[in-house]
Amino acid sequence: MMTRAQYEASIRKLKLQVYMFGKRVQNPVDDPIIRPSLNSVAMTYELAERPEFTDLMTATSHLTGKKINRFTHIHQSVDDLVKKSKMGRLLGRETGCCFQRCVGMDALNALSITTFNIDQKYNTTYYNRFLKYLEYVQENDLVCDGAMTDPKGDRSLSPHEQKDPDQYLHVVEERKDGIVVRGAKAHQTGAVNSHEIIVMPTVSMSEQDKSYAVAFALPSDTKGIIYIMGRQSCDTRKLEGDTMDRGNVLFGGHEALVVFDNVFVPWERVFMFQEFYFAGELVENFASYHRQSYACKVGVGDVLIGATQIIAEYNGAGKASHVKDKIIEMNHLNETLYCGCIACASEGSRKPSGTFCVNTLLANVHKQNVTRFPYEIGRLAQDIAGGLMVTMPAEQDLKSPETGKWIKKYLQGRADIPTEERMRILRLIENITLGTAAVGYLTESMHGAGSPQAQRIMISRTVNMKEKRKAAKKLVGLEDKG
Ligand code: SF4
Ligand code: FE
User: Which domain holds residue 428?
Assistant: First the structure.
């Protein structure tokens, strides 16, 4: 396994083509806007080194028997799935934001199921190819970006019907030694902190879409892959140096638009090619795993609830009964989310390849709750924090010889708490509910791993309505005719 320092050094070596604010970023690792997101991924290495977290953060490779980082592991049991949920909460709590490495883990696990199933149906050899790749990832302890979401153009049209055929990533040339692909993947979490990029289709497909039914993996600095960084609200506060106005002064996340401008993929890195029948299955498996991964929001919720409790105390309102009750409500919602990610893992089952996958229905129910509860938790945090959270002057004003004394005097809460401490906590709440971390805690909770309607469709498809009707009829003596 790599250490935190080795991880950073390995990312530094990559020749990524990254753009931000209209300019090429020559050194993403040290860029002040990107750096906090690298710090978050680095925690997936650092915690794996710490003995108290070994059980959660590492696993035994089913390929080599070696100890590996759990983020590169293929789940071999229900216990592995439960540990994955717990690991997500732990890292969310340690970083207070999105730590980005889950998408790759979920892509690897989804591919381990689907490549096996494709081989069973078509006598292909994808599974062995995939296992070779997996061993490479495990041996080198790599971060993979799992890239699923295409730009999608006109949502009423399928991939082949789009006016611009590149709205979904597709194969534009088939060669003896591989394929050439073109298109883009949007909202790519942690893309420029990744060694590898694993591309999968984003929707179910028909035969006419078969050139879009493609899955593969490439080193992230492959020629023709271009990263255009997404903005986050309050992102430029990171350019202000070590100011407390950043809220979370250590960690962050990032997303990027990743363009594939006629990129060559050798055959040994291709895991699906024209098997359109399996595109939907791969999407569903990845989505189920990734909906479970939203255990991370429980950990961020822990941080937000902690900050809210502190600010209530700093404001002198910690003992007010309505404040206590609101904090109970926040905990109730947060632990309900925890129930969901533990439940879908506990009810997981073995797939033909031997990989364990979460219960699809429960993973979708969990993610549906994630689209709602963090908003309510955030609303209650803002309620308790008070308006100062958004009207507070800058740290420079606190430090200024002219205004510092006024800030200290009038932004004081309880007399025994230094004003600066109160300001720091307010900035953290601002960061998670309105600032850079709100991307992860709120909007990503809404749309990441699929928007709310995607889960409702899966709930309606997987819930057993027949059984429910039968149960009701039985109790009133009615015969069930189906
Ligand atoms: Fe992982 Fe959560 Fe970030 Fe998704 S949003 S990559 S699940 S930390
Ligand atoms: Fe996400």
Answer: 291-464
Calculate how far, in angstroms, residue 296's C-alpha sits from the geometric centre of ligand 2. 9
In a domain, 272, yes or no: yes
Residues 66, 177 share a domain: yes
Measured distance CA(302)–CA(428) in Å, rounded: 13
pLDDT of residue 388 exceeding 80, the answer is yes
> CA angle 265-271-276, nearest 5°?
110
Q: What is the CATH number of the domain that holds 246?
A: 2.40.110.10
pLDDT digits (tens, 9 = 90+) for 68-100: 999 999 999 999 999 999 999 999 999 999 999
Q: Measuring from atom 3 of ligand 1, which residue has the nearest CA?
A: 98
CA of 209 to the centre of ligand 2 (A): 26
| Domain count along the chain | 2
- Edge-first strand order for the sheet with 214-219 is 144-147, 196-199, 214-219, 270-273
C-alpha 160/C-alpha 180 separation (Å) is 17
User: Is residue 268 domain-shared with residue 153, that is, in the same domain?
Assistant: yes
Query: What DSSP character marks residue 148?
Result: -
